[in-house]
Design a protein that fits this description.
By secondary structure, the protein is α/β, with parallel strands linked by helices. The chain has two domains: 2-73 and 91-160 and 268-348, FAD/NAD(P)-binding domain (3-Layer(bba) Sandwich), CATH 3.50.50; 164-263, 2-Layer Sandwich (D-Amino Acid Oxidase, Chain A, domain 2), CATH 3.30.9. Helix content is 37%, strand content 30%.
Amino acid sequence: MRYTDIAIIGGGLAGSTAAAMLGRAGVPSVLIDPHQVYPFDFRVEKLGGAVQLERFARTGLAESVLRSSTSDGENWIARFGRLLDKAPSQQFGIMYDALISAIRSEISGPAEFICDKVVEVTTSAERQTLVLASGETISARLVVLANGLNVGLRRMLGIERQITSVCHSISIGFDFVPVGRPAFPFPAMTYFSERPSDRIPYITLFPVGSRIRANLFTYRQADDPWLRAMRHNPVETLNAALPRLRRITGDFDVAGDIKIRPADLYVSTGYQQPGIVLVGDAFATTCPVTGTGTDKVFTDVAQLCNVHVPAWLATDGMGAEKIAAYYDDPLKIACDAWSNAKAFNFRSVSIDSGAYWQAQRWARFLVYFGEGRLRRLRSGRRQAAVTHAMAQTP
C-alpha cells in the first residue's frame, strides 16, 4: 500500500492545479489520472480578464503557465456589423490540453503523478483508501475529487447531482480562417448577436499560436436541427445567424473539426462526508458562455490548498465537520453564487424578449459604443499633442 497525505482524483484543470500547488507547498500528494498526456478536450480555450487572472495568480502558477499561451493585447467589440470599441485586452489563448500540460509541468516533489484509474474509494474520519485499476492501493488522509463530469465514483459514495438547468447552453469551437488575404484585421474580437431570435449571445475570435480560434455560443436544445446545419454547413449557417459579421471580418472559412458541447447546470448533493472534498465541476457546473468556470476552479483550488489543507493536516482526523470549513468558505460561496447568477442573467439578456431585457441589451450596446468613442477621442488628443510637440521641436 502506498501512503500519502492527499490523493487527487482527476488530472484536468482543477486536479492538476491542486497537485502543482501542494507540491510547491511540500505536501505529499498523488495525482491520479488515466491519461499520461492529457488528450484534446473542448473546454477552456482562453484565460482573461483582470479578476480571473488575479484568481489564477493566487495559485502561484499563472506567470509560468501563461508563457505557453498567446496574448492578443487588444479585443475589438462589435455588433450589428459596427465596430464599437478597440479595447485593451488581457486575454490569453491556449487549448485545454496545452493548458493542462503546462500546469502539470509545474508538479514537483513531494507531489507525484500516477497514470491509472481509480475504481473504488472508501472513506472514513481518519484515512481514505483508493483502489486503482492496476490493483495498487493508496491510503491518504484526504481525497480531492476533481474528476469533472464523471459521476461513477461520486455515486459510489452516495453523492448525486441536482440539475438546475438542462442543456443551459451549447458551446461550438472551430478554427476561423480568412479567405483571399493572409490575416484578419483584428487581433481578437467579440461579436454580439444581432437578434435575440437567433439565440446566440456572441462569438469570440482569438489567437492561439498562429491560428484564429472561434468559440460560438448558443441557447438551444441538444437535438435542434440548427446544430446539424452548423456542423455540415458552418459558413452558410453562421452567415445566416450573424449576417453583418462579414462587414468586419471579411469573407471567412471554417477549418478542421467542429466541436459541439452542451452544458447542463447542476450542483452536487450529499457531499458533506468525512475524508473527501469536491472541487471544480465535480462540485457544481457553470455556463461556459460566462467564462466563469475557470474562476470557480481557481477559487476552489486556491482556497483549498492555501487555506484549508494546511489547517486540516495540522490536526488529527479528517471528519466531515472539519471539511465543512471549505464548503462554508466565504470566497468560495461568493464565487459560486456570482457564477450561477451570471449564467441565468446572461441567458436572459441574450434571448428574452421582455421590455426589461431589451433595454438591457441596448444599454450594453450604448456602453460599449460610449467607451469606444471616449477611447478614440483620448487617442486623438494624445496623437495631436505628440504631433504639436514634434512640430515645435527645432
